[in-house]
Amino acid sequence: MQQSSPSPSSRLPARGIPNWIPRWRRAVLLLLCASLPLLPQTAPAAQLLDRIVAVVDDDVITATELEQRLRLLEQQLLRQRAVLPPREILRKQLLDRLILTRIQLHRAEAMGIRVDEETLNRTIANLAAQNDLTLEQFRRVLQEDGYDFARFREEMRQEIMLRRLRQRQVDSRITVTQQEVDNFLINLQAQGKASDEYRLGHILIALPEAASPADIRRAQQRAQEVLEALRAGEDFATTAMAVSDGQQALNGGDLGWRKAGELPTLFADRVQDMAVGELAGPIRSPSGFHLIKLLDKRSGTRHVVTQTRVRHILVRPDTALGKEGEAQALAEARALRQRLLAGEDFAALAREFSDDQASAVDGGNLGWVSPGELVPEFERAMAELEPGAISEPVKSGFGWHLIQVLERRRHDDTEAYTRRQARNQIFQRKVEEAETEWLRRLRDEAYVEYRL
Questions:
Q1: Most buried residue, 18, 265, 287, 292, by most Cβ within 10 Å?
Q2: Under a CB-based contact definition with an 8 Å cutoff, are residues 74 and 33 in contact?
Q3: pLDDT, tens digit, 9 for 90 and up, residues 203-240
Q4: Dihedral Cα 365, 371, 375, 381, nearest 10 deg
């Protein structure tokens, strides 16, 4: 019933879409902006004779595909009111990103990672629901923005494939121990900065995996030249788009708001003593030389949430029966709801009929839950219930739920929240460092030929 933790958030961060655009439209644009410059597009038959700009293993990237992506990226950057670097530099950065994405897709296919239609449909339906749109309204929004829905579906499929690949190859290999969390919190408390957050700009001048002394000297010299240009007044975001090899280069190198523990280890100590606007670097790591700029800083506060004491009855469908099993489970849930409305005891029915064995023994009681602890479908239905009311059957990945809210309260969970945040920060830091190395190995192992 409860979701596993930690897990990288699937929600998209705000990336500069103007505030005058309606919230639901901004969310859709953000998704498109996040995925469009990254995902390769299958070339139609008419493009088979198109000029090839890169060969990636046994695949190719065409000039037309690159130009389409470049126009979309330029539109995104203009929406963000960014200062664009020269078009040729932006084209090269985008081509490198397309190559890396194509390599990852090849690896995913070789590992047998597939996305079935049901998963894809559910993902798109959830995306529409998160933005208070029906699927038809969502489709219409895409069309109004000049975006083909079939193409959007295919790119969402590829994005899910990439997410699953990273989960298998990187995330699943990361562990965080209780001792690491304890040590992390002790260090932050000793510094008196446990709740501070930083917004960091980042530029990476990358090194190949087996860098020679000459490679290292050249990269260090290049990083020093970029740093001097920034100190002389060059715009950081424009420079990052033009020269950075980092994953956020096309977003101006902006790493977004992070607590100190979410920053890469080699940045964390430095950034705490930096003033807003200050530059630091070059900082050496196995992946190359880094330049950072503290874009902004803010302090956190106590964490108070609305908790809900809730219970439920779960009716799990028989998957072997397919749609018939789903219909039977829904019918059983509806029948149980009628018995509850007629006055039968919720706890007694939960103990007898609920398929959630962990809570059934306690009359379906889930105890006090905080936001984010339960699956989204359950939480949305729970939030709409008044205490004492019984929900209609609610569908989740576990089955059909009958939900009853018993009471609500305001609760200061700063201590528990801080530990969860610490664990997530350590996890994200490890993932980011491991993913950088993993992507570099993938790139070095692939056959890539530039023809730009």
A1: 292
A2: no
A3: 999 888 778 899 899 999 999 999 999 999 889 998 99
A4: 80
Give the residue extent of every domain in the chain. 23-169, 178-301+416-447, 304-411
Query: Which DSSP state fits 197?
Result: E
Angle formed at CA 326 by CA 341 and CA 399, multiple of 5 degrees: 65
What pLDDT shows up at residue 190?
64
Domain 304-411 has CATH 3.30.420.40: no
pLDDT in tens, 258-273: 877 777 778 877 887 7
Q: Is 34 exposed, middle or buried (0-12, 13-18, 19+ CB in 10 A)?
A: middle
**Residue 330 CB: number of other CB atoms within 10 A?**
16
- Of 421, 376, 76, residue with least CA distance to 257: 421
Comparing CA positions, the residue from 60, 10, 50 lying closest to residue 30 is 10
Task: For helices 23-35 and 63-79, give the axis angle rounded to 10 degrees.
Answer: 140
What number does CATH give the domain 178-301+416-447? 3.10.50.40
pLDDT at 377 over 80: yes
Angle at 253 between CA 238 and CA 29, to 5 degrees: 90
Type of residue numbered 1: M
| Cβ-proximal residues to 450 (8 Å cutoff; 6+ apart), any chain | 53, 54, 95
Matching CATH topology for 23-169 and 178-301+416-447?
Answer: no
Least confident of 93-107, 294-308, 321-335: 294-308
How far apart are alpha carbons 345 and 364 in whole angstroms? 11
CATH architecture, domain 23-169: Orthogonal Bundle (1.10)
Q: Looking at the whole model, is its pTM more than 0.85?
A: no
Statement: residue 47 has pLDDT above 50? no
What is the Cα–Cα distance from 334 to 354, expressed in whole angstroms?
13
- How many Å apart are CA 299 and CA 156, to the nearest integer? 36
Q: H-type helices in 170-294, by residue range?
A: 178-191, 213-231, 236-243, 265-271
